[in-house]
Amino acid sequence: MPRLSLPDFLQEPTAHVPILDVRAPVEYAHGHIPGAVSLPLFSDEERARIGTTYKQVSQEKAVLLGLDFFGPKMSQLVKQAQKLAPHRQVRVHCWRGGMRSGAVQWLLELAGFQVQLLDKGYKDYRRWVLDEIARPRPLWTLGGLTGSGKTDVLHQLAAQAQPVLDLEGLARHKGSAFGAIGQPAQPTQEQFENDLAAALARLPTTAPAWVEDESRTIGSVHVPPGLFGQLHAAPLLVLEVPRAARVRKLAAEYGQQDPAALATSILRLRKRLGGLVTKEALAAIGEDDMEKMVSLVLDYYDKTYAHGLEGRRVTRVPTATADPAVNAELVLQVVARDFFSSRI
Questions:
Q1: What is the span of the domain harbouring residue 211?
Q2: Domain contains 1
Q3: Catalytic residue from among 19, 94, 170, 241
């Protein structure tokens, strides 16, 4: 069966034609096509030994060593593929679309599978990822002080069929020193970029997408420069939620979390908070006074965020509440009034 270009490879229906990533487990863990399933031809150790043989001895010896590893596991690979693809249709790729994917293609076709191979492999996919992230696109950036409920507003906008890019959802982190609490482990930087590119590719090109105002880093991952520059150049709508409402919202959220995790996050900020504030915030956690703890920390975050607004195009959106439904409607009204009406 002919090799597929990347667009054709990605457009195949995933449900019935799974993507089998035949690279080594460590390669898959570092980053993979979203939705792809790991079916490694070689283990990490086997891959390393083949690579060493190729460099230090010869290509011929490396190929023979690979065949020694491949032979005993052929039956098991077919059985695994049968479980993953009961319809016996699969898409397969390795790093460059070379010997590893070719060997698995030969084996599975011998076992009666229809196999579609990604031409130029995962390397070509990564090139597409970086191009997709850097591609210019229309955006609205949603800002606001910590506790304004920006992410909740984005979800509300998405529920109203507005195009939305949820960076914190993709990063599995809420962006602050407390952002990892209650979240699953973050993806690697490469996987974050892969997931980000897939999300961007799904956005319409005819209307601006909503995205939350972020710093360069979200926990352990960073927003790629090409996209970060677009976020900061886009129109920025800043929700102005009263401090009391923000304190209540954050206290309710963090009051459900592990006090030890909260204390650890406070200690990460101690150099910025100062010794006295850190001590008072830790005491507030011990006394289960979440509103006091939040209020102490907000002083730092509010100053930091205000500094980050300098030199940017800001449209302020005053509101009396942190209710996401109300605030989603407000930002849509501001966009219609201040942006679209000015073009008529």
A1: 137-343
A2: no
A3: 94
